[in-house]
Amino acid sequence: MFETVRSVLKYRNQFLDLLVGVPSYDKYVEHRLEHHPAEPIQSREEFFREAQEARYNGKGGKVSRCC
Fold first, then answer.
1. What is the per-residue pLDDT across 7-21, written as a single tens digit (0 to 9) for each?
2. Helix (H/G/I), strand (E/B), else coil: 59
3. 3-class SS at 57?
């Protein structure tokens, strides 16, 4: 039962992250290990900071969204 609850919470968190536009750190780590094993992996904080920078400051400080 605890595994079911843990699984539901994991998917809920993934859904909420995607809903607000935060990429998955776990997917990032998997990709880096598979495709770039010799390169360093950013910490979770560095990854999040870079994702936020790309989302909100990617066009010269202009927010790129529909509304």
1. 888 888 778 777 766
2. strand
3. helix
Residue 58 and residue 64: Cα distance in Å, rounded? 8
Residue-wise pLDDT for 35-53, tens only, equals 999 999 999 999 988 888 8
Residues 6+ apart with CB under 8 A from 63: 56
pTM over 0.70: no
Distance CA 4, CA 17 (A): 20
Gap between the Cα atoms of 62 and 55, Å rounded? 10
Q: Could you give phi then psi for residue 17, rounded to 5 degrees?
A: -60, -45
> Do 28 and 47 touch, CB atoms closer than 8 A?
yes
